[in-house]
Write a structure and sequence with these properties.
The chain has 129 residues and is an all-alpha fold. It has seven helices and no strands. The longest helix is centred in the middle third of the chain and has 39 residues, at 43-81.
């Protein structure tokens, strides 16, 4: 099978969901060509495969953030119930490292503060009832 046919088949497999999406640099490396070759010879398939990869990355990031927010909520609740200090540092120590991948410290601080405020509000409501 010729190189162009192999590349086209691989790109179509990404588009059809038969193989996991990868970025165009990795595709080019796999076949020993440069990225411009992919887009020049297989423009439509390359654009579709790139869009699928970017969407996959976006969904993965959304899932990571959702899991992180849930973990922060649980951690803040636990710290409050044990009358321990709640800060981005204390939360960072208790949240699994893999959930923190790519999260900037200021993002973590904001998420912790929002969660802490929500938890305190929730606890005040319970006390009033």
């Amino acid at each position: 099978m010729g190189l162009e046919i192999e590349i086209k088949q691989y790109l179509n497999d990404i588009i059809d969901g038969k193989v996991p999406p990868v970025n165009h640099e990795d595709i080019a490396k796999k076949f020993g060509v440069n990225v411009s070759y992919l887009f020049r010879k297989h423009r439509i398939q390359s654009q579709l495969a790139t869009a699928i990869y970017q969407e996959s990355k976006r969904r993965t990031r959304e899932q990571q953030i959702h899991c992180l927010e849930y973990q922060i909520e649980r951690t803040v609740s636990t710290l409050l119930s044990k009358n321990r200090e709640v800060s981005s540092i204390s939360v960072d120590k208790l949240v699994p490292y893999e959930l923190m991948d790519g999260i900037r410290p200021e993002e973590l601080s904001i998420k912790v503060e929002k969660t802490l405020l929500a938890q305190r509000t929730k606890r005040k409501r319970r006390k009033r009832q």
